[in-house]
Amino acid sequence: MAVTRPLLDLVNVTAGYGQTPVLFDVDMSVAEGEIACLLGRNGVGKTTLLRSIIGLNALTSGNIYFNDADITKAPTYKRARKGIAYIPQGREIIPYLTVLDNLKMGFSASGKKAKRIPAEIYDFFPMLKEHLQRQGGLLSGGQQQQLAIARGLMCNPKIILLDEPTEGIQPSIVQEIEDTLRRINIEKGITIIVVEQKIEFARKLAQQFFIMEKGAIVEKGKTDKLADSLLHRYLAV
């Protein structure tokens, strides 16, 4: 009988930029339907890890398995078509395109020729429907983040990789994003990995945590067991 892997499974992943190593023998497993948070100080490799999962950074060694398939050597576009959505830090909204056109860009990741925006997008993000003809660059930071998440949903992903979704966003919008991500997870069963600096946001949203230090996973477990002593050791400045 074949062994069933988690939805996402990283085995001894080592990666970096050119000749500069950043990740060292990372092992990380995330189950289907789970929300996991990736914690650690700036510069420990969290963004590089997400970029490696989506294929923007080639591995030096190790393997990445997704949905029971080895995607280690798969190009980024094929990973997207398999169901991995990546929402980078800074959101990368195209500022001169309208909200509607930014949303439509999400179709390209799936490789399908759909034309209509699914109604559920406006259900999750009603603000977007009010600003469809507005340029993306004229939205607030919080509105742009909601647009970026919505664009990621357009390819109907199995997993969303979110890098610093609350950075520079006012508290009321942070709460909206938390509530919406939880709805997306529960109602659509989408797995989420979020890199986050706001500890309370991560604790309330995620079921599992991973802490990174110097390019490696040094602690992991259930977020309800995330001790303040670990936060002080690995996250205090």
From TrEMBL:
The keyword Nucleotide-binding is assigned to this record: yes
Classification via InterPro entries: AAA+_ATPase, ABC_transporter-like_ATP-bd, ABC_transptr_urea_ATP-bd_UrtE, BCAA_Transport_ATP-bd_LivF, P-loop_NTPase
Alphabetical UniProt keywords: Amino-acid transport, ATP-binding, Nucleotide-binding, Transport
UniProt entry tagged with the keyword Glycoprotein: no
Record-annotated membrane-spanning stretches: none
One MF term in the entry's GO annotations: branched-chain amino acid transmembrane transporter activity
Family matches, as SMART domains: AAA (SM00382)
UniProt-listed GO biological process terms: L-amino acid transport
Domain ABC transporter: 8-237
Entry similarity comment: Belongs to the ABC transporter superfamily.
Name by which UniProt lists this protein: Branched chain amino acid ABC transporter, ATP-binding protein, putative
